[in-house]
Batch of 3 targets.
Target 1
Amino acid sequence: MLSPSLRLVLALALTVSSVTFLAVTLNAANTREIAPATVTPLKAKILRRKDKMNDKLSAEELAELRRQAAQDRNEERELEDTTPKHVPIKVQIKKEKEQAFKDLKNEHWVRDLEIEVKNTGTKPIYFLHLQLHLDTLDSEGKHLAFVLLYGRTELVDVAVPLKPSDVPINAGETTPSLSLNGS
């Protein structure tokens, strides 16, 4: 004979497992009804080290696949400017290079990328350090990033005096261009 407390525990366990089973079954049935009959699988090439070739997809790799699929549907590469609103600059792709950057078939888009920075403030800008973070993952699963610089790097320290050779971006002016290839 089972004690009353053990009966209660068994009844609760049976109830919880039954509710869980029903919830999972109903959710699976609803998913099948909503999902289209033909779902196109995501296909892409993921670069990995040899010792990781047969591993399952990580969360980052799966996110990258989904991002690439969404980008393929858009049919063009996009640049998202996440510069804080209080920073007095406007960043954009140079008009002549915009099509080459957006073209998903362009394997050399990094070489073609040129950024223009407009000083929307009232004071001259002598130094800029911009970071370009990509959604693309490298072979170790880390996001790629590039740094774009304008001006003398010593000017990071505000105590460093200006030199006559320091060329500012004056208020309302735009830089000639910043590029990843060093020009």
Note: The radius of gyration is 27 Å.
Target 2
Amino acid sequence: MLNHVVVGSGSPLLILHGSGLDHRHMMETLEPICERLEGWKRVYVDLPGHGQSRPQDRIKTQDDLLAVIIEFADEALPDQKFGIVGESRGSYLAQGFVHMQPDRISGAALIVPGGSPASDSTRLPDHQVLESDPSMRSELNDNEIARFESFMVVQRRDILERSRRSKYPAFDLCDEAQTERVNRSFDFSFHARGETTKFDGPSMIVAGRQDSMSGYLDAIDLLPQFTHATLAVLDAAGHGLAWERPEVFDALFRDWLARLSRCK
């Protein structure tokens, strides 16, 4: 079974992180919200080849990766419906799960979806920094400078501290060979065939207006598929929008949970 951490009890949420990261990133993002709420069982997963989940030779495509996630859900949440939360690559896997087993998903939260390797790069906004703190620069090593300046739209000390706790340690654990294999066959086979699934469970789609990695247009394009989705495109936010605009993100996520709770 994949490495995972379970927090809380109640209605289950399967939570999937982005590429290169592990469960710590999603815990850092969601636990400040969920720890104040009751009735939610959070299942934070390390995807194969990430964190403490070993890479698997059988994983050669995105379809293969999705199959392993579905197998994990069969073991960890047998015969249960659950909400699914995915950020970045995790949001694409969440979409795949919704396509393959929509009756099993009670609701979906898709955070910074879009921006696959096959996406049109002209649909992506240019990177820009809208909030900076020059006093931090002397504290950053070379890798941190590169990551912060090429990634973050908002550069604040609290974001640096959260990154040091959860993101940067995960990068060293990511299996590059498996990642390269999957990236060569990134799109799900059913998406390559033009297949889509309409999903009517409570959903949330959140994108950053200045996200130079995933953009926001791909997120908007998902709206017809998720017929009960709240769509938000946050200004002054990029691929790290949950940390860059925490008050707005927290309100949107709590709203999604409230809608999800009414469908139990």
Note: The beta strands are 4-7, 11-16, 40-45, 82-87, 105-111, 203-208, 229-234.
Target 3
Amino acid sequence: MKTLGEREAREEILSRIARLRPDSHRQWGLMTVHEMICHLSDSYLGCMGQKYVSPASGLFQRTVMKWGALRLPMPWPKGVPTRPEVQQGVGGTPPANFDIDRARLAELVSLFGSPEFKESEAVHPIFGRMSRQDWMRWGYRHPDHHLRQFGV
């Protein structure tokens, strides 16, 4: 299973982000490619404690849902609701400049996958506290899901 803590997997995600274009078309969902970039950045910022994201966690989310999302070798389902603070058109950061926002996302991916990321200080709004391995798995799977949404 790929994780963002692995250099090759991190470089794969960064390469896919670099291939996004302002006119990239979604294959499902409502977000534009630029909104998706901001959503991913907001999600990383939230998990790093740099943006407030309201919790929506219970025993089911912290156990069964987390286990399935991080360990089952199948694509994540489409259309799963997100937290309002990272949802475009609600509380998510609005798109500004495509190239700058895309570069910011790449910086966050690199930082999140680096040893500087302190998983002990992070809390996922749905899955709760996680091990470094779980964070790195989520850090790969979340952008992978949305990059597939835009065909990269």
Note: The radius of gyration is 14 Å.
